[in-house]
Amino acid sequence: MQKTIPFLAPLWGVLLFAGGHLAMSDPLQEELRSTQEDQTSLAITIFNDNLALVKDRRRIALPEGVVDLAFRDVSARIQPETAIFRALSDQSPVRVLEQNFDFDLLTPGNLLKKYVGRKVQVVQTHPTTGEETMRDAQVLSAAQGVVLRLEDHIETGVPGRIVFPDVPPNLRDRPTLVMQLESAQAATQEFELAYLTGGLSWKADYVGELSQDEEFLDLAGWVTLHNTSGTSYPRARLQLIAGDVNRVVPAELPMMEMRKARRAMLAAAPEPVSEEALFEYHLYTLPRPTTLADNQTKQVALLQAQSIPVRKELLLEGSEYYYRRKQGEIGTKMQAMVFLEFENREVANLGLPLPKGIVRIYKNDSAGNAQFIGEDRIDHTPKNEKVRLKLGEAFDVTADRVQTDFKKLSGFGPWQYQFESAYRITVKNGKPESVTVKVREPIPGDWKMLRTSHPYEKESSDRVSWILRVPPEGKTILTYRVRVRF
């Protein structure tokens, strides 16, 4: 009895099932199939930039001679030119003669397109009696709808259920890497398929809770995993690469476009490890296997650190343009920027290489409810480096900046222009407690500080700063005079 695959016209995309199973024949009757049921282990190394290395180990029984092995359940975004298939023992030598990646998947629309020019059957049901009749038809077109040739006329649309005799051999129900192998003898052994794929990515996110006295921070780090690769990865051992790996060809190319460059495969570190250096990057190994389902986002704990000493900084920063010409009032009601700093050191209860990501900071209000107070993005931060976060702008700490004097002393060419100017910066504090504010000014050219009301620090060749103490609900006035030459 002939197998049939009906096509339901009213739902456009529903396949008729017979006896609870999809009625379809094997696309290639003589090929050998391997599915996830054959897996003995699965390891994935995920990079920051939408790239992953998959190492899929399976136990497969190969016959002697040449055989087509359909390696099913691979990523739909596999880069086929990076695939490496090898036996893990010398039990029976196996050579890969050729390989094909079949990504044209079984859908009602694709099935109909494969039958253009071929015979199908149309099943129609009488609306009153329910009696079914079956008629032969030829598919003329499947573009923007369907065109059928019946015995005595041509019809557009689907006048009933379309019944297909078989599944074409070049149409598969899931992404499959088909390899033609030559085995020296019949044997069952373990093989590994390693390949690079898109559709897998990760990022780090951090959540910090600031103490009430704003002197300590509790920090939690999370790894957020994204899987849009077109397949699931059951019980996979996951490793994450933190660092920017050079790529010859961008990862975001259509999956059917063959890349011209073959990329080097990166080996994952042996377990058990939680974090280690790998070349010029850092490798993180998750402590236990996890399942990554297709189209899933999953979070896994990365770190927990308690009572990290922090320092809050209120900063008012100027610009260099007003040292070149007369300005008068430069800015009023400038708000101080708020920064939070801490050291990534073991003595500060941290001391781990931190992958780049967003750090979100919370603080409890008077009722004990956590409130969001700002966030910032950090780059990859090695151990013993400083972490500096800009959280926002202070509401109660503002400043007015006025240019009180400006003189042109000379100027007829480069490095002959000389200006002398004076400034008054009034820093105001609306809080009921005193605050410390840093005022930083970038001074261009060759400069000399002539006079200042407060001690200053020369941070660099073109930058000076003052530390001002501003009383509760009061103000502090900074004045200075400077001579510059361009």
Structural overview:
This protein has 486 residues and is mainly β. Among the domains are: 1-30 and 107-166, no CATH class; 311-341 and 390-485, Immunoglobulin-like, CATH 2.60.40. 1% of the residues lie in helices and 56% in strands. The chain has one helix spanning 108-114; strands at 5-8, 14-15, 17-18, 21-22, 32-34, 39-46, 52-62, 65-72, 84-87, 94-102, 119-125, 132-141, 147-149, 154-156, 161-164, 176-183, 187-197, 200-210, 216-227, 233-242, 275-278, 281-285, 290-292, 296-309, 311-317, 329-343, 357-364, 370-378, 386-410, 418-429, 435-442, 446-452, 457-460, 463-470, 475-485. The chain has a 9-stranded mixed β-sheet, with no helix packed on it. Strands 6, 7, 9, 17, 20, 21, 22 and 23 form an 8-stranded mixed β-sheet that branches. A hairpin with a 5-residue loop joins strand 6 (39-46) and strand 7 (52-62). The termini are far apart. The relative contact order is 0.13.
Topology:
Layout: E1 5-8, E2 14-15, E3 17-18, E4 21-22, E5 32-34, E6 39-46, E7 52-62, E8 65-72, E9 84-87, E10 94-102, H1 108-114, E11 119-125, E12 132-141, E13 147-149, E14 154-156, E15 161-164, E16 176-183, E17 187-197, E18 200-210, E19 216-227, E20 233-242, E21 275-278, E22 281-285, E23 290-292, E24 296-309, E25 311-317, E26 329-343, E27 357-364, E28 370-378, E29 386-410, E30 418-429, E31 435-442, E32 446-452, E33 457-460, E34 463-470, E35 475-485
Parallel strand pairs: 5-8, 6-20, 18-27, 25-31
Antiparallel strand pairs: 1-2, 1-15, 3-4, 6-7, 7-17, 8-16, 9-17, 10-16, 11-12, 11-15, 12-13, 13-14, 18-19, 19-24, 20-22, 20-23, 21-22, 25-26, 26-29, 27-28, 29-30, 30-35, 31-34, 32-35, 33-34
